[in-house]
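note to self — DONT lose this again. spent like an hour looking for the file last time. sequence + predicted structure for the chain T wanted, 663 res
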Amino acid sequence: MNTLEAELVKNLEFYLQYNKFRINLLLELMPPKKRPIFYVLPFLLHTNIKELPGYMPNMNTPCGIDRYLITDDVKNSLRKNFQFHFPTIKHVEKTRGKECLIKSLLLMGSLGTVAQNPTSDFDYWVCINEKEASPTQLELLKKKFHLIEKWAKERHGIEAHFYKTDIEKVQTNKFGEVDKDSVGSSQAKLLKEEFYRTSILVAGKIPFWWLTPADISDEEYFQYKKVTKESSRISPSLLIDLGNLNEITTEEFFGAALWQINKAMDSPYKSVLKMAMLEDCLDPEVETELLCNILKKGVQKKNQEGKNGNYLDPYKIMFDHILESYKRKKKNDVLDLLATCFYIKIGLKAKKSDLYRDDLDFKERIITQYVKSWGWDHSKMEDLNDFKSWGLKKELALGNQVHDFLIQTYRSLADRIKKDREVKRLITDEDMTVLGRKLFSFYAQKPGKIQLMRRVFTEGLALNSVTFSAYYNKQQNIVWCIYRDKLKKHTLLTSDAKEKLLKQDNDIINILIWAIYNQMLDRQTSMHLIPNPSHLSLTTIQEFVNITLDTFPSVKISSLKNEALLSPSRKIKMLFIINFASPTWVKEIETISIIYLTSWGELFCESHRAKEGTQKAVEYLVENLTDNITNLKKCYKIFVPRSNNSRSIYNIFNSGIYKNLRR
């Protein structure tokens, strides 16, 4: 056995040990009731059994995973999930002896790392040779994926995603849509780096990359591959080649950084760590090594030293790299922000007593080591442990820090792009215009604009219950308030109520639109109205919330189309609210509030007296006027609170609009 072959054999053993450790950690960190899913999902993909999820009546549907084994864990997991339809081994053996389309099934992401939590997604790369299947079969396979994903979500509350991955294309870094953000083509090597760094082999063939040394050239990689073809110790049939990875260009790091800023508008604290990593990779004064190669060296070297590699966690390696970078730059404020985001993302509520325990598990050990190094005291830990109960003011304070970091990073990148000719050639003016306008839509303040909150956390935005109240201020103007949770009138002046106050305004429509646009109110939110001096009823508030949700579905700024952002902003959806707070006996139009959404994702709200409001409504509708006036009905709705006069008021306003439009 020559030297290269011996190295491959040795590295194969080390990888299998490391992969086993990752699987064991994944199962350890999963809630016990959900652990069987780890074994069930691959089985459903491997088979096509009528009584089980993922069944496709078309017998041409591809199924079967190469080298898949039915272990006792698989059998026990199937019994727990399908007590009345437990499949026998005979069903499975039908696929044996047949050529399996799926060559390898691998998980990537936070599973099996310190970042795993009960809500972590199961993101699978389903590696196949597309040439072995017809377009019809590939479409059937996609439908099978969907059926299994749906079952996992509905039955177990698990987000599972199967991404069809063509082996030949991935070798040359052509990914198509192999991740949930569909950025495979623009950030190919970065996606491959994250895959190699975080992936877990679930079933099938072993990625050949893990057998080779780190940081080798494509030529050296090919030499190792040639050795396997002649090896008596390693059969090529055991392996899957997804290509080498030895460098990522500055231009691709720039593209990834701009994309992360784009994502951060919707999910800030998840992006801030990746953004920090990319900023370090773009530091011209630092020569950085790919994190996947750092991990690979650790797996191969540490095992040589007889250690178990337990601390070789993909997420920890990334975070340590970031911390070292900002320590070197002496940016202590950013370090504290990153530590806070990391701690919250990990989701482990450490206690002071944990710092001195000897029986800590893997995750506890890593977190307590960090907490000690940061010098956090008990009150700091308790505060972050309770972050889900923070008041809005406190949450927004952290949100401002996160968003300020992201904005500053964007400005720094934009300045570098202007100065670097090569980067400027690849990052076009159009790219920068689109991102710049998304940032403008998110952050810019304008009269009447409903501001998106600079929140840190996107999970659980919708509130279970809210309370509305109103009072007259010293100037005898009515002031509306919205509070988190159900409150009683006598509690409104307490410190607890002040903590739960979300917003106050003279116009309740502004409050409602703000809460809806920021996804705090939905149809499941229980609403309460404390008796007050206004004419407004709870029924009217609930009806308004429903029609607003119907008219303005939630908007993700990051998902806005480039075509819309490269064109002038225009109003695309409008809602006219007539006499919202007027007494029910009023027969004429008194007030008109206009809410409109623009093609740049901005939402505005303005209130007018009757005549001025009608003129504004006509003016805004003219902007959308085509040859056919009736087409306008698609871009606006009218809401009049229920009363004996609501129908006539609706008709007066609607006919007034069309009368003016026809002039």
